[in-house]
Amino acid sequence: MKESGQPRENRRVDADIPISADRVLAGSGGTSRAGDRALAVGFVGFGRAGAALAVAFADAGHRLVGVTTRSDASAARVHRLLPGARPRPVAELASLVDVLILAVPDDMIALVATEIAEAAEPAGPRAGSVVVHLSGRHGLAPLTPVAARGAARAAVHPIMSLAGLDPAADAAHLRAATFGVTADPAAAPIARRLVADVGGRFVEVADEARTLYHAAIVFGANYLAALAGASADLLAAAGVTDARAALAPLLRVSLDNALRDGDAATTGPVRRGDAGTVAAHLEALRAADPAVVPAYRALSRLAAGRLEAAGLLPARAATSLRATLEASDPTDPTDSSVSSGASNVSDEP
After folding, report:
1. Which of 79, 73, 77, 66 is nearest to 123 (CA)?
2. Can you give the pTM of this predicted structure?
3. Residue 96 CB burial class (10 angstroms; 0-12, 13-18, ≥19)
4. Which of 22, 41, 117, 306 ranks highest by number of CB atoms within 10 Å?
5. Coil, strand or helix at 125
6. Model confidence over 42-79: pLDDT tens digits?
7. Within this chain, do residues 237 and 144 fall inside the same structural domain, yes or no?
8. How far apart are CA 72 and CA 44, in angstroms?
9. Are 78 and 44 in contact, with CB atoms under 8 Å apart?
10. Residue 49 maps to a domain
11. Residue 154's beta-bridge partner residues?
C-alpha cells in the first residue's frame, strides 16, 4: 500500500524518536483525554500526515488498533512511534475500527476505498464506522464505495505544513491548525470530535467548494519557498552574504502584518505607485534572472489591483503601473496569461 505522495527521500519519519510511556498507555486506554469513549482508529499509510495524526490521536487517548503500510521499513517506523499499533492488512483493519484513516496519496483514495468495500465479510468496513481521507482537494466522492457497506464518509484536511522529520513535533503543530472538513451527516460528529481532541479548529467546507478551498491554500502557502528562495538568490547575486538570514526578519514581519492587516500591510513601490522603480526592477531582474520576471510582473499586477479596489492606490497610479508592466516586455511569451487578465486586475477582491 502506497503510504505517501512524497518522494522517498522526503519520507523522513523514521528518526529515532523516544516514545514516552504516556503515549503508549494512551493508545490502549478506554477513554480519551476528554473523558469520552476512546475510538478504535486505524491508519492506511504512514507518511507525513498519517504519522502526525496517528501520534496526535494516540496522545488524545484514542486506541490505535493497527496500521497498514507498504514496506517493512514503514512498519518499523510505526513500531518505534506507536508500539501498540499492530501491522494489519487493509481489509482486516477496516473491520476492526470505528474510524479508518486513509492517509494515502490523492490518486490512491478511491482505489483503497474500493478495495475495502469489495472485501468479503467479515473483512471490510463495518456499518456505522467512519472512513476518512486527508486530501485537501477531494471531497466525499472518492469514498463512495464504502457507503454501500454502511460506512459514513469524511474528508478531514489539516491546514498545516508537516515536515515529516519528527511526527511528535508535527502532531504538536496540529494543535494550532484549522481542519477543513467535508462529511456525511453521520460522520460529522466523529470528525468534529477528532479535530477537537487534537486541539484543532473545525471548519466545514462544502463538497462542491473543495477544489477552490484547496487552491486557496496552495496559492497562499505552497509557493512561499519558491518566492523566498528566489529572493535569497537575487540578494546573493547582489553581493549580500547570508541572504536568508538577511531576509528572515523581513519575511516573518511581512507575513504577520499581512495576516493581521490585509492589503493595508502592503509596502514597497507598488503601494507607493512608483512606476519608475518598478521599471528599474524589471530591467535588473531581466539581467540577473529572466525566469523571475513574469512572476514579478504577475504579483505586481495582483497587488496593484487589490490596492486599487481597496482604495489604497489611486486609479491614475494603478493605470501607470499597469502600463509600465505591460510595456516592460510585451513580446515575452511566458507572460501571455498575465497580460490577458490585465484589464480585470482592478476587480480583485
Report:
1. 66
2. 0.81
3. middle
4. 41
5. coil
6. 999 998 999 999 999 999 999 999 999 987 878 888 88
7. no
8. 14
9. no
10. yes
11. 132, 183
Beta strands in 147-300 (DSSP E): 152-159, 178-183, 201-204
Mean pLDDT score of the chain, rounded to an integer?
A: 86
Residue 114, CA distances (Å) to 70, 91, 94, 269 in order: 18, 10, 12, 54
Place of cell 493497527: 66
Cα(329)–Cα(80) distance, integer angstroms: 56
195 and 83 together in one domain: yes
pLDDT tens digit sequence for 2-53:
443 433 333 333 333 333 323 333 334 466 555 578 999 999 999 899 999 9
The answer to whether the beta carbons of residues 233 and 211 sit under 8 Å apart is no
CATH code at 142?
Answer: 3.40.50.720
| pLDDT value, residue 328 | 72
Structural domain of 268: 223-347
User: What would the grid cell of residue 275 be?
Assistant: 512606476
Crossing angle of helices 293-309 and 275-288, in 10° steps, is 160
- Taking the C-alpha atoms of residue 56 and residue 34, their distance in angstroms, rounded to an integer, is 13
Report which residue type is found at 130.
V
